[in-house]
DNA sequence: GTGAAAGCGCTAACAG
DNA sequence: CTGTTAGCGCTTTCAC
């Protein structure tokens, strides 16, 4: 059996409560006794049992982090930052993957509820109602979603999408495609709205294709549909889809950005590794992870329910350029033909 | 306050031990009582407190998963598979990141020890001694490392490296480079040995460059050094480095595979997304994650300490091809000149 | 089949 | 400053 507080008490000739205090309220114990206790504890290899402590204090010093898909490269930097940040504050983190399934998501929150001091919900696919329901069982901080009254950290993809579309418009593109993401994604809606509004305001056309799974294969599979629209530029829900599209276009000998420009969102590591390097909207995922942890841990102290909006940046690389040179006033059909050829 | 076993007992008119039994040993309780208890529990929203249960049973139903770097794309598929598999067996998983630091690694094991039933150590950077030491505090399963007497799951990179080198030799390459990984990596040693032995046996030359951090920037930074060796083919410690090298070579107008062939290891998602697509050794990371979880959970039952060796597969894509065409018997210097030009 | 009681490892009043 | 006592939520003997 592992060494307990009792063993330390016996070995150092004090009562167990003194040992307890040595660890949980050191200032309440005589420096001499303290160092003696600490010494024997060290020697015996004693480590407080957090679970037992949690039982009485009500604080587990654990947090939960629920994401849609660990293997989606968008999440790991966020997970890493959150975990490192939490550990620095002496918290351990449970990580769980919902596989984009809202039911699994809800189950997970409930299963974890008793073992954690709070949960970070990353890009949740549940309904607002469900989230508010669960919030009564356990403190929640939501990432990449805005729900009134709920603490949240969002990366301002709306603004990112606007920058991206403006960039495309500045290059002369008049017909864009938005390759939309999965159903139930709050982010997806925001991007779509922002992109649509920006294009419309400039008198340009924006065709929405989707929904799609947020993976590269979906981007690749959409290539034909994209070409069929006759658009000369594409904004994708995320980099994965953008990269899939990029390669599928090149495999069809469509030049990027010569004939079609492509913009992604997220700035995952791979977007710098592909050629042409992907123009994309950089999301501060690591900062978001840290901010969310801070928010969750503060929630206990005061009852604050702030909402943080993190700035996103358009990173212009080599997958965007001027639209194909066409006679002014060409019809959509002509553009399509031109692009396809 | 949350609803406890006591609330359920009161509400259903039975003693708390009956409620307890209803959840932990249902067969010991009258079916009628059981369903009544279950009903009120359901209605009150009761969920057993695992921490309290763990205190007495000694089983937390949690496991720890410690990896070198969550953001390294090699790990997320493994983490995902392990987490999903564990959850299916009703286990939650703590994920932690050591940032490639053996000290952090050891601390983490000790910090997690009391809260878990066991820990999965993924590509540990600690010494064998340290690991064996820690093993006495908590059940351990090691992934990607072989230590006698310790349960382990390894992906057979040695065999993978042999296949890769043979593939290169078959294409006619006579001088190879191994771009080695981080110090302290067991995998790195295995690859190096296997690659060296295979090359030597065929009378070919293998130059080892390194150590390197296992990131794409390190691969890119090694481009000059690689060219300076005059080798016509490179095996890299992992795909990230291989991809970095790939791009750096192309940026210098060195054709891949025309002038230099490049092989990676891992088969991360990005290796299929870059052009040319990367020839690489596919590691069954997801299978490894699941196997390790199974091993850890069985360890409690019997005292088995098996070691599983998972097969790796060479995936031939487009970054490898015949070496540059040269007059037979060209000197190394000539080859270097040719390749550089 | 169910209740009573003890106790897992620890903290939190309360005395002294 | 330190010891005493009660008890967090739950399981597990042991009687009945």
TrEMBL record, chains A, B:
Report the domain of life of the source organism. Answer: Bacteria
Q: Which residues form the HTH lacI-type domain?
A: 3-57
Molecular function (GO) terms listed?
Answer: DNA-binding transcription factor activity; transcription cis-regulatory region binding
| One Pfam family of this chain | LacI
Keywords from UniProt, A to Z, are: DNA-binding, Transcription, Transcription regulation
* PANTHER family listed in its UniProt record: LACI-RELATED TRANSCRIPTIONAL REPRESSOR, TRANSCRIPTIONAL REGULATORY PROTEIN
Q: What is this protein called?
A: LacI family transcriptional regulator
Q: Which organism is it from?
A: Actinoplanes lutulentus
């Amino acid at each position: 059996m592992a060494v307990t507080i009792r063993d330390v008490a016996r070995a150092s000739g004090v009562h167990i409560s003194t040992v307890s205090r040595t660890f949980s309220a050191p200032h309440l114990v005589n420096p001499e006794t303290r160092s003696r206790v600490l010494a024997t504890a060290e020697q015996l290899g004693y480590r407080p049992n957090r679970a037992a402590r949690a039982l009485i204090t009500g604080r587990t010093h654990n947090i939960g982090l629920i994401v849609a898909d660990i293997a989606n490269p968008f999440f790991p930097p966020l997970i890493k930052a959150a975990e490192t940040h939490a550990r620095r504050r002496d918290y351990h983190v449970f990580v769980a993957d919902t596989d984009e399934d809202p039911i699994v998501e809800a189950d997970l929150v409930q299963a974890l509820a008793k073992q954690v001091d709070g949960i970070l919900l990353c890009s949740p696919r549940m309904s607002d109602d469900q989230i508010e329901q669960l919030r009564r069982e356990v403190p929640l901080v939501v990432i990449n979603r805005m729900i009134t009254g709920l603490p949240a950290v969002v990366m301002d993809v709306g603004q990112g999408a606007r920058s991206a579309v403006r960039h495309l418009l500045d290059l002369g593109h008049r017909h864009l495609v938005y390759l939309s993401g999965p159903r139930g994604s709050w982010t997806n809606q925001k991007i779509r709205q922002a992109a649509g509004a920006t294009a419309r305001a400039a008198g340009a056309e924006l065709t929405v294709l989707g929904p799609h799974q947020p993976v590269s294969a979906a981007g690749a599979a959409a290539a034909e549909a994209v070409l069929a629209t006759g658009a000369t530029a594409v904004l994708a829900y995320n980099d994965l889809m953008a990269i899939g599209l990029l390669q599928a276009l090149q495999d069809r000998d469509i030049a990027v950005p010569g004939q079609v420009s492509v913009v992604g969102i997220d700035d995952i590591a791979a977007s710098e590794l592909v050629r042409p390097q992907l123009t994309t909207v950089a999301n501060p995922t690591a900062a978001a992870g840290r901010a969310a942890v801070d928010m969750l841990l503060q929630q206990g102290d005061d009852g604050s329910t702030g909402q943080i909006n993190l700035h996103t940046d358009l990173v212009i690389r080599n997958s965007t350029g001027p639209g194909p040179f066409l006679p002014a006033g060409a019809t959509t059909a002509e553009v399509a033909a031109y692009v396809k050829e």
